[in-house]
Amino acid sequence: MELILLTVPGCPNAAAFEERLAAALAGQPGVTVTRRDIADERAAAQAGMHGSPTLLIGGTDPFAAPGQAASLSCRLYRDDAGRAAEPRGPRGQVWRKRPKRPGRCRRKVR
Questions:
Q1: Whose CA, among 17, 62, 86, 104, lies 20 to 30 Å from 93?
Q2: Based on the structure, what is the number of domains in the chain?
Q3: pTM metric for this prediction
């Protein structure tokens, strides 16, 4: 299975997303993850990006709402009730944030 992580250059959430993804996929043979930086709206539309970071599984964004427009914005993931939430891994586990370190600003994964 191929996973593609689409991010904007310098995305503040990309590294944390990659760490959570690696932890969720630990012990899953045959899975490859490729990261692509997307720099403009045209490339975002062509790639199927709905905000940064976007995860494509088999070429599809499983977190995108039907008809959601392509976007270079920060990504906000939502739960079934529409509240801001952390994305879930392929086995349903929540990808938790690392604890905040004093004096360091962290944005939520979007």
A1: 104
A2: 1
A3: 0.70
